[in-house]
Amino acid sequence: MPILDAHSFEFFSKSPEQTRRLGMRLGALLQPGDLICLQGDLGAGKTTFVQGVARGWGTLDEVSSPTFVLVNAYRRLDGAQLSHFDAYRVESLGEAEELDLDALLERGPLFIEWPERVEPILPVERLWAWLEYEFEEHRSMRFTARGKRYESLLDALQQKTYGAG
Amino acid sequence: MLLAIDSSTAQIGLALYDEATVPGELFWKSRAHHTAQLAPALAELLERVGITMDSVKALGVAIGPGSFTSLRVGLAFVKGLALARHIPLIGIPTLDIVAASVPLSDRKLAAVLQAGRGRLAVGWYKPTESGWQAHGEAVTMTAGELEQKIHKPVIVCGELTAEDRQCLARKFKNVMLASPAQCARRPGVLAEIAWKRWQAGKTDVVASLAPIYLHVLGGLPV
Fold first, then answer.
1. DSSP secondary structure code for residue B66 in this structure
2. How many domains does chain B fold into?
3. Higher pLDDT, A89 or A68
4. A77 HSE (CA, 13 A, CB side)
5. Lowest-confidence region among A99-108, B58-67, B179-188
6. Do B89 and B6 share a structural domain?
7. The pLDDT of residue B68 is above 60
8. What is the pLDDT of residues A91-109, one digit of tens each?
């Protein structure tokens, strides 16, 4: 778990609706090329969070867990694409590399579940989120930004969530 | 008539070549939509110049280095054409195309293309009597790292961003930067190299012709 600093943000969600709402706020802020890593066990709320993100970003496509298809692509009316990659079933870094994450990033924002499995091939600058099961419907979410773009993205998310930061 | 296709990087290129002339040539920077744009662009080019696929007797393709998705799209496309129409296919290393568009000089040449995440793929070429000769394999590095390696007069040509140019210009005593127009990787040049290889009878086996991918990590287990 990271030590909280100026480029980190912590959020406690009391329900899936609240997790989705935070996702929507982030989704509305995303730009092409944004890389968001979601680390957390089964049931930590990764897919729920991405459902909110996709809504906030503006797709009408339904969000599902991409465990079996590796990459889901959600479309928007302006032709942009939000990519949702699940690294759980990827067997080697070489296999992950062949999926060409750079090409996905050119088309739009990219979310990666189980990012720790492919960490060596990821761009160094990114937003990393740790999602954790607390109890019942409560989940904790910690975000850490690396790089200028992600620091300002996280600032904006914080402002949207809590008002003036 | 030979049809050449280059989809190594974000730039897609198409050219028709018949030894004496280039009846049609087209290249543009695509926003990662190679799959959707390549086939319609070819159909439009053929239509515009009034040539049908029946006149195309050979295919040239750039085999990289380049990015995974874009190379795969181009190779799958030309392989489909080659197999369906029973015509020969010639694969040309992408940096050879960059080198071939530079007039021969007594300096060494660094041919480059964008390798993603701000890096360049760099191939070194030496002048010989038969033109530029590749020297070693292409390696990835940043423009800053390339600048550090240059201690003697060198020509740098290929896909360079404004930042890359600025960075390399620091070595102005030794670096001769090719102009942006000269740096454009023309599919017509690819067609010309492929035509020569075809005339020399050096075609490739369609099924086994493989692209040269650029890996994010050096020495990655694949």
1. B
2. 2
3. A89
4. 3
5. A99-108
6. yes
7. yes
8. 999 899 989 999 899 889 9
Per-residue 3-state assignment (H helix, E strand, C coil) for B102-145? CCCCCCEEEEEEEEECCEEEEEEEEEECCEEEEEEEEEEEEHHH
Element (H, E) at B165: helix B162-169
Nearest to B221 among A94, A102, A107 (CB): A94
Location of structure tokens 């599902």: A64
> Domain range holding B166?
102-183
Interval B84-121: pLDDT, tens: 999 999 999 999 999 999 999 999 999 999 998 889 99
8 Å CB contact of B216 and A107: no
CA distance B198 to A118: 42
- Strand spans (E) along chain A: 8-13, 35-39, 71-75, 81-86, 110-113, 126-135, 138-146
- CATH number, residue B173: 3.30.420
Handedness of CA A52, A57, A63, A66 (dihedral sign): negative
ipTM: 0.73
Please indicate if any CB of chain A lies within 8 Å of the CB of B31. Answer: yes
CB A157 within 8 A of CB A9: yes
Question: Do A19 and A43 contact (CB within 8 A), yes or no?
Answer: no
Instruction: Locate the chain A residue with the closest alpha carbon to B217.
Output: A121
Residue type, A130: W
